[in-house]
Amino acid sequence: MIKSAVLTASVSRKAGGLFEAVLRQVQAHDPQRVATRVFGLWDEFSETDLPAWSPVPATAFRPSGLKLLGYSPRFREELLAFAPDIIHTHGLWLYPSVAAKNYSRRKQRPYLISPHGMLDPWALNNSRWKKRITYALFERSHLRGARCLRALCESEARSIRALGLKNEVAIIPNGIDLPEMKTPENAPWENFVKPDQKVLLFLSRIHPKKGLVNLLKAWAAIQNSKFKVQSSDEWILAIAGWDQGGHEAELKRLCAELELPFADIREEKVKNGKRETRASVLFLGPQFNAAKAACYRHCAAFVLPSFSEGLPMVVLEAWANARPVLMTPECNLPAGFQAGAAIQAEPSEAGLLAGLNELERLSAGELAAMGGRGRDLVVERFTWPRISRQMEAVYDWMLGGGAKPVCFAGF
Fold first, then answer.
1. Angle subtended by helix axes 73-82 and 95-107, to nearest 10
2. What is the C-alpha to C-alpha distance for residues 291 and 187, in angstroms, rounded to an integer?
3. Are residues 329 and 360 in the same domain?
């Protein structure tokens, strides 16, 4: 039995897709092989979301002192008391990195790091000076001391190598649970979309790296007669997700500048079951649980125009719900293009405009076939039991109990 400590900055929805990725990975481990405890930092959603980790024990510790980095003496003390055989750190730049390195040095135990795309070039350039300082203080030592680094895809593995890191690199993607193919409750946009209109869904963190500025510019361009395809007025863009740093307000201002009719369903009043506005863009706000499932099941297609991703859970979720996807190469899921489950678009305005035109020319049958290929791809490569078995093989190897797994990068 391997005793594993999983360290992460947040154990709540505040972590976005990282929350689901870490949650389901630890829950999918074979309890006869791996005994896991999760250590995280407290935030405003911790109390609500901690029960979701059951039956895996998870604790959130309140930062003190250097709160910006999440320093917590109790975090360190509880980790020492748990005395894991192995540590798996998810994410970078905060106190869990320090705790993992210190425990490993003190107890001579190995640790594994999953950066989740945080070492990709775009991510490193975002808040660049803060990360340079943090890297010099503790993250360089943390990364270099890892027995193994886990990349979500080959592109991330190459980004790791580009930084000069010589650690072994295992390429293991995120996974997804397959939902039942049934129609859930009504979609959040029910009163704002005509029955014959199709919804193109964006559901992710609302942050500049997600490429929404260029998506809105392309969406505005496609409404102009110069670019308009026959079906363009049949589509509505729905933007769902957690706002970060006020970016949603910036997007609304951009819609006004582009003369794109938009509505925020949290603010619009609906009378007698009918919408009061006709919008080309809808802002939905955060969507969780049943509401999130309804978004996937009722949309016609999904879009992720990101400049940088590790391996986005939302694309896997869209495919698991048999929805076609429009995404950038930076989403690091080339298998989707190869399988015919996604349309490729560069993250520029021109690239997204071309992708939108291609998407909107597809018939209902073609959209359904593309979504079906996405679900088949998930079944073949991205289910959680498959992913967890690969991770357990890496744990065995790190502790000297197994052969080197085939998932290791050959460069």
1. 40
2. 7
3. yes
Position 302 scores a pLDDT of 98
Distance of alpha carbon 333 from alpha carbon 342, whole angstroms: 9
Spell out a b/e string for 58-91, using b for 16 or more CB atoms within 10 Å of the CB, else e.
Answer: bbbbebeeeeebbbbeebbebbeebebbbbbbbb
Q: What is the pLDDT of residues 173-205, one digit of tens each?
A: 999 988 877 766 788 998 888 888 999 999 999
Is residue 26 domain-resident?
yes
97: domain range? 2-175+383-398
Closest CA to 114 of 46, 77, 167: 167
Low-confidence ranges of the chain (pLDDT < 50): 226, 230-232, 270-272
Q: In the Cβ-directed half-sphere of 404, how many Cα atoms lie within 13 Å?
A: 9
**CATH at 305:** 3.40.50.2000
- Please indicate, yes or no, whether residues 169 and 236 belong to a single structural domain of this protein: no
Residues 369 and 388 in one domain: no
In a domain, 329, yes or no: yes
Q: Considering only CA atoms, which of 112, 72, 85 is closest in space to residue 3?
A: 85
Secondary element (H or E) of residue 28: helix 17-28
Domain assignment present for residue 108? The answer is yes
Q: Which of 77, 18, 80 is nearest to 43 (CA)?
A: 18
Closest CA to 20 of 173, 175, 172, 149: 175
Place of tokens 């360089």: 140
- Nearest alpha carbon to residue 320 among 273, 278, 372: 372
Three-class HEC string of 58-73: EEEECCCCCHHHCCCH
CA distances 56 to 52, 76, 323, Å, are 9, 19, 31
**Phi, psi dihedral angles at 392 (to 5 degrees):** -65, -35
Residue 411: inside a domain, yes or no? Answer: no
User: What are the structure tokens assigned to 169, written together?
Assistant: 């690199």
Rounded to two decimals, what is the model's pTM? 0.81
